[in-house]
Structure formats: structure tokens, C-alpha cells
Amino acid sequence: MIGVLVSGNGSNLQALIDAGLPVAAVASNRKDAYALIRARTAEIPTATFALDCHVSREERDLVMATWLEEHGVESVVLAGYMHLLTPPFLARFPDRIVNVHPSLLPAFPGAHPIDDALAAGVETTGVTIHLVDEGLDTGRVLRQEAVPVDPRETLEERIHAVEHRLLPEIVAGMLEGAAR
Ligand code: GRF
Fold it and tell me: CB-based contacts of 90: which residues, under 8 Å, 6+ apart?
């Protein structure tokens, strides 16, 4: 069973749901994330763990990890989740947390990779699916796919289309591996 962490629109969460993957719970740091509405529409339990409701980031992450485990979560997918995870959370799901990032890491880590790639004037950017560690988009790369920058008007759309294809594929493989 997977748990998905979200902060925003949740189109990657939707791709996981539409692929029929076993999403057991969806958690967010923001109560206004549209991704939560997508989860509720799919009758998936949701919860918000806002930083200002906890004494520290570590404590928030521990409570969130416990909530996910209580819902049967064994693997975690970050689908547009905009906070770094702390060691107490990472230790609960060792090598079982993946992130989707819209650049060819290690190029353009951080919050604005598509804008950063455009500003840098590169011809090719892409999508990376990687394991999550304490760093900012630094974990071991599981899969990458290049996307040409031009035509730039459609770059974002084309990147998202690749994300929505790759993420469910990698997560399905991860679940199969875990079941073996
Ligand atoms: C995606 O581009 C993902 O790669 C990045 O944040 C964006 C989230 O989009 N980490 P969505 O919320 O899944 O629509």
C-alpha cells in the first residue's frame, strides 16, 4: 500500500489513482491543496499536517509517519510535496520513498526547475524519479527521461505528461519488488 504526500494540484496523485495503484492515504502540509479534493473524491483517507500545529519539523514528520503506518502504508510517494523530510520520517520508510522532479537531476533541483531550465537556456530538460534522502532532490536516481525545451509554450504540459506516465510505472515496479 502506498501513501502519497502532496502540497498542491495533485495531478501526479491523480495519475497514480487512475493507474489503479493502491493509494491507502494522502497527507499534505497544506489544508488547501487541491490534491486533497482529488483524494477525497477517490474515497482515500486524507490528513493535513501543517508545520505550525507542531513543536518541530521532526515531531510533525513523526506524527505523519505514524498516521501513514496506521493506514497500512509501506511505501511513500512525494507527488509535488514541497517540504524536505527529516531523518525520523526517512527512518520509518527506508529506501521506500520516491519523488518526481521536473528536471534532469542533478540539474535544476529545488522549487522552480522548469523556470530555471528556461532561464539557463538549455535545449533539453526532463523528468527524474528518485529515492528520497535528507537533501534537496539528491537521492539515488531510479529513472530519467529527457524532454526537449522547444516549443517552450508546451514545455510544462509535455513534462507533466512524462511525469504522469513514468511515476505510476516506477511505483508499480517498487510495489512488485516489495512483494517479492
Ligand atoms: C510536479 O511537476 C512534480 O514533478 C513536482 O511538483 C509538481 C507537482 O504537480 N515535484 P502536481 O501537484 O502533481 O500536479
Answer: 97, 132, 133, 134
Write the DSSP string, 146-172: EEE--SGGGHHHHHHHHHHHHHHHHHH
Taking CB atoms and a 6 Å cutoff, what residues make up the pocket around ligand 1? Answer: 8-12, 35, 79-80, 100-102, 163
Cis peptide before 109 (omega within 30 of 0): no
pLDDT tens-digit series, residues 11-23: 999 999 999 999 9
pTM here? 0.96
pLDDT band for position 179 (cuts 50, 70, 90)? low
User: Rounded to the nearest 5°, which phi and psi values hold at 98?
Assistant: -120, 155
- What value, to the nearest 5°, has the Cα angle with vertex 131 and ends 172 and 34? 70
Question: Which amino acid residue places its CA nearest to atom 9 of ligand 1?
Answer: 80
